[in-house]
Every structure is written in structure tokens, then in C-alpha cells.
Amino acid sequence: MKKCKLDVGVQTITAKRKTKRLKEGHYIDQYNNLVAYRKELLRSNPGLTVEIKTCMDGDIRRFQRMYICFAACKNGWMNGCRPIIGLDGCHIKGHHPGPLLAAVHIHANNGMFPIAYAIAETENQETWTWFLELLKWDIKIERGSSYTFITDKQKALGNAIADNACWFPNAEHRHCVRHLYNNFKAKHPREELKQLVRNAARSSTVVWFNKHMADLRELSERAWSWFQDKNPAQWSRAYFRDETRCDILLNNLCESFNAAIVLVRDKPILTMLENIRMDMMVRQSNRRVACERWKDLVGPRIKKIIDKIGQRAIEYRAHRTGEFIFQITVRFKKQEAALYCNDYLIPSTYMEAYNLIIYHIAGQEDWEPVDYPIAPPLFKQQPGRPEMKRVKEPRERNQTTAPPAHKEGKLPKAGIKTC
Predict the structure, then answer these.
(1) DSSP secondary structure, 338-375, as one string
(2) Lowest-pLDDT range, 94-98, 132-136, 297-301?
(3) Looking at the whole model, is its pTM more than 0.90?
(4) Which domains does the chain have, with CATH numbers?
């Protein structure tokens, strides 16, 4: 506005707010319509789980939490996905901010597959325990030791996973290596240490893990000591369990989901929830169509990984010592490596995850009315302009963007003085 020399007064801001309210609905009305929205979801999507938790503030019933898990998502996960789940929360930036908790899986083509999500009043062990108990019931987890969770090393979430009430006491719990390294870098910023930490995390055997940790100790005793209370089973491939058939080190699944909904996280609650449902519904349909165009025995992303590994292994060959057991020496005959991939990675398994549909719902004017008013949660407005941008990590703050390139034959205007 300064560039155009326009005076934006209070009336302009008020008009903008009124326009947004007409378009998206008043936030109080949206909370009052949550139960009607729940009833419409249950009508149109059989098998769906929707839980709304409220608390009493005198005679007023106030919103506290809401959990949603579509039947297409939970059944798709059980039928066609590996037993690994990414957990994370992101901030809602609307009139009543709070965390949005999410459980996200990795499908057969190494992409994100949302399972369930919830809006809560805060992000702590209590809310994560509540979320995980509902998730455990939805996806029918009976033996916690058969599952793997990957998180951003949040203490409250880690305690919730290990909580006996959640039936996850023996589950494998991985920590995102990027977040682990950011904590390490705060005390040990030397660049040469970075590659050694990465090598240790990517090690496929305990022998190589110990070798890289010995190199780290030789370079810096203090840096090596920092890892002594960190369980390597939570951040190194050498100690990961084989049952998950997945060796991911980063919690990019949840980061992808958070990025997909970033444009709706500042909307009123009903508008936000409906936009998330629409996004998931369209994604399910698009991926079913995309799978029909696959030309290989595995998905395109998996094919690239296999080809990359194949280039490194072109000089090796396998000598059978038993069923699915080989000794590797020198390869003499080229074969289709995808034939040896686990069933979790083949197209038929991918389609098992996306066969079910997230169904559309009727327009709000056609919802069956429900006399169950819910007031918004109490929120104290903080002084100053609300922060809309996320807090950047140290590595992002240090990154500098290159100046825009100017056209050939013309000088940039920056730094030029005129008479």
C-alpha cells in the first residue's frame, strides 16, 4: 500500500473482515454447526470415526477437541500400507489458534497417506494420549511391538507412545534425524561433523555405524559424548527393525501433510475441516487414476531408487545359500530387480490403499439440524499483530537468497544515485 500511496483506514480493514465473514461464515456459527457437520459426515461416509470433546464453562458448553478418521483411510492403511506411522502437530492460525494433530503413513510409492487428524486445545501428553487411543482403536492395533512411529523428538509425544494405556509400550520409536541434528548443531556447529552424523544415521550395519561413530570421536570427543544418551535404535538404520520394510530417517510425511493444508489453517474451523476433507477426497481419486498408468512392476519413485542402487551394484552377483539368503560377490547377469521387492511396494498393494472412497457431503443448507450448540474455546488475544509465519530453524535463518538477475545490458537500480 505504501508503494501505491494508498491510505488504508479502519473502514477498509473492517470491510475486509466483513467480506471474509460473508464468504466463510462467522466463527461462532461454525462451532455451533460442528455437531450437524459430524452427523452429515457419518451419513455420507459409513464407518467414519468422528469424536467431539467439550467441556462445561458454567452453563456454556465449549469446544475442546475433535478427531476425524475416514473409513477409506483407516481401511486403506490396514490393507495396503507398511506398519509405520508419522506423528506431528502443526499450528492453526485462525481466530482460535491451537494445534492440529495428524497421523500420516507412507504408501507403496513413498508418498504421504493421511490416516487421522484432530484439533486440540494444546499439544501435550494428555492430548496426544487421547489422539493415540482413538487411533489405536480405529486401525485395530493389537500388538504395539509390530508397529513403528516416527516423530520430531517431542517429549510429550514420546511419553504418549510409551504409555501403557495406549498399548504402544514396545513399539519402535524413531526420531527424525533432521531435528536430531538441529539439536546437535546448536552445540556442535562444525560442518565436518555433519557428514559423520549423516553417515552414522545411514549405516546399514552395526559395524559401519560403529566405524562412523569412532571417526566422530576421533574428530571431537565432545560431539561423540553428545550421542551417548541417544538410543541408536531411534535414529540409525543399522538398528531399525526389519518388519516395517521402511528405512526412512526423516519425518517428511507429516511435513508434506502440513504443507498441503497450510492455506486453510487460518480459516474458521468448519471451513478448514471441509477443505481438508476435500483435499483428501480428491487426492484419493487422483492416485487411483495415476496408478492405472504405471508401466513398471513398482511405483515410479521406487523404480528410481531401484535403478540408482542397481547402478552401484552392477558388478555384483548373488550366490544362494538358502531361501531368500544370498552371498554377494560379482554380478554377471542383469535381472529385473523389482521382482524381488516386497509386496508392500507393488501396484496391487498401492491400489488396496486407495480403492475405498472418501464420499462427498451435502451442502450446509441440506444438513439435518441438531440442537446442540457448542461455544468456541476461550482465547485471550495477545497484544500486537499475530505472528503468521512459522519460526524458522537455525539452518534456514543462515540461508541467503541470491539477488534477482537483471536483464542483459541493464544495470540494477539498487545503489544508484541520481542528481
Answers:
(1) GGGS-GGGSHHHHHHHHSS-------GGGSPP-----B
(2) 94-98
(3) no
(4) 26-174+250-297+342-374 (3.30.420.10), 177-245 (no CATH), 300-340 (no CATH)
